[in-house]
Amino acid sequence: MKKIIRYIGVMATLCAALVVLTSCGAKPLSEQNVLNNAKSTNTITWGVKADTKLFGLMNIKDNEIQGFEVDVAKALTKQILGPKGKAKFVQVTSQTRIPLLTNGNIDGIIATMTITKEREKQVDFSNSYFDAGQSLLVKKGSPIRNVQDLNKAGTTVLGVVGSNSVENIGKYAPKAKVLQLSDYAQALTALKSGQGDALTTDNGILFGMAIENPGYEVVGGSFTNEPYGIAINKGQTQFKGSINQALKHIEKTGEYNKILYKWFGNVQGFNYGEAKR
Amino acid sequence: MISIFANYGPDLLLGLGRTLLCSVIALFFSLIIGSMFAIFETTPIKFLRVIARIYIEVFRNIPLLVITMFFYVVIPLTFAKVDGFTAGTIGLTLYTSAFIAETVRSGIQSVNSGQMEGARANGMTFWQSMRLIILPQAYRYVIPPLGNQFINLVKNSSVLAFVAGFDLMYQGNVIASNSLDTINTYMAVGVLYLVITMPLSYYMRHLEKKLA
């Protein structure tokens, strides 16, 4: 008798799993309209960074991701869905963001993602919402002052896998050795334990690290131009249009500047006047 | 997948070479260290038994990634400069040696105790009887589980990717993010791991048939 009950239990679990799995893959993503889906559920799911101070950082106390991009995404959601629209946030990394977008787990990526030609083959980008530039973080007193100083055999530069800043180092300082770590927290730890001479990525992110770590400073100005865009799946023209429209609206009303000032207004070395829109 | 091999072949081969090198080094040293602690565990000297117990329990029960990160970020702060490849290989060696020690110990203990008594009665020292009588028999018993450990070691070497050790998994991550072709890249990486582990697996099976 016991055996039969156990057998039924196993079968029921399997059936339940099957139902759940099949209901997930109801309709191929390319045939869905993300904007209509968002309107019917009153929710937009955004992929954001959770390891990047100022842009998107997990606040351990209340278990919420906070940052400039999170606030922009919330403002855009309110514009697109109305004041009652809900923004849901999913944590992504440079490596996972495109796969998560293409398989439909998230509707849009707003995660310090530079608009590049390579990426435009895979996803669509909205208009730029932030103009970053690549820079360097070094220990205070380091002989490295700019990107030319890196172009020597024996220098090691730290970066993050999947970011285009490591590719740029290949262009600007081809003699330097590049180590690619899995995320910014790890890259910073590696810098602190002397695994590399400089950490390179976009200046906004580096400013965030310099605030947290007073022994380190951002040097070399910005030697590239990295406009951040919101990535969405190809073919979602309606969704893209509404994002661009919402972005234009919050720039016009000054809400964008308010958010920008909230996060970057007091950051040393950041030119707020130049970045505001 | 063919396009991944065509475009990034040299990178993948470099990664494959690094993974092989790391695996061979770690395999060699973990076998030596593991056997040493296995013998310690079975000696009559209590002090050595306690040392072996502590070593095995510590390294067997801490995740490999934690051991590796310790060597990558903590050791350079206080002692010597350790690069990612070295840190990964050291971590892998210590971690695997704890498992090998347990495996070899079980082999030593499954050799009939009369063998040791007989060897000692014939005037051999403990080390002599261990080396000449017990260990050859013990290794024969543990070839199948040791084979498992070796295969696990090769797969675990992917921990190098987390500390920029330029191994196969690291190259895979870099290629996946450059080509944006995640599925095919990781499939190619999987195939290359099979290239290492399948022959190893067959060789272990062959040894098992020949010796056991």
From TrEMBL, chain A:
InterPro entries referenced in this protein's UniProt entry, alphabetically: Bact_solute-bind_prot3 (IPR051455), Iontro_rcpt_C (IPR001320), Solute-binding_3/MltF_N (IPR001638)
Occurrences of domain Ionotropic glutamate receptor C-terminal (ranges): 43-266
Signal peptide residues on this chain, from the entry's feature table: 1-22
The family this protein is said to belong to: Belongs to the bacterial solute-binding protein 3 family.
Name this polypeptide is given: Solute-binding protein family 3/N-terminal domain-containing protein
Alphabetical UniProt keywords: Signal, Transport
One Pfam entry name: SBP_bac_3
UniProt cross-references to PANTHER family, sorted A to Z: ABC TRANSPORTER GLUTAMINE-BINDING PROTEIN GLNH, AMINO ACID ABC TRANSPORTER PERMEASE
BP term (GO), one: amino acid transport
UniProtKB/TrEMBL annotation, chain B:
One BP annotation, GO: amino acid transport
Subcellular localization: Cell membrane
The keyword Transmembrane helix is annotated on this UniProt entry: yes
Top-level division of the source organism's lineage: Bacteria
Cellular component GO terms, alphabetical: ATP-binding cassette (ABC) transporter complex
Pfam families given in the database record: BPD_transp_1 (PF00528)
CDD domains according to UniProt: TM_PBP2
Chief location of this protein within or outside the cell: membrane
Record membrane topology: Multi-pass membrane protein
GO terms, molecular function: transmembrane transporter activity
Keywords assigned: Amino-acid transport, Cell membrane, Membrane, Transmembrane, Transmembrane helix, Transport
Keyword Repeat: no
Domain ABC transmembrane type-1: 16-204
Regions that span the bilayer: 12-40, 61-79, 183-203
NCBIfam families the UniProt entry points to: HEQRo_perm_3TM
Family: Belongs to the binding-protein-dependent transport system permease family.
Name this protein carries in UniProt: ABC transmembrane type-1 domain-containing protein
Organism: Secundilactobacillus malefermentans
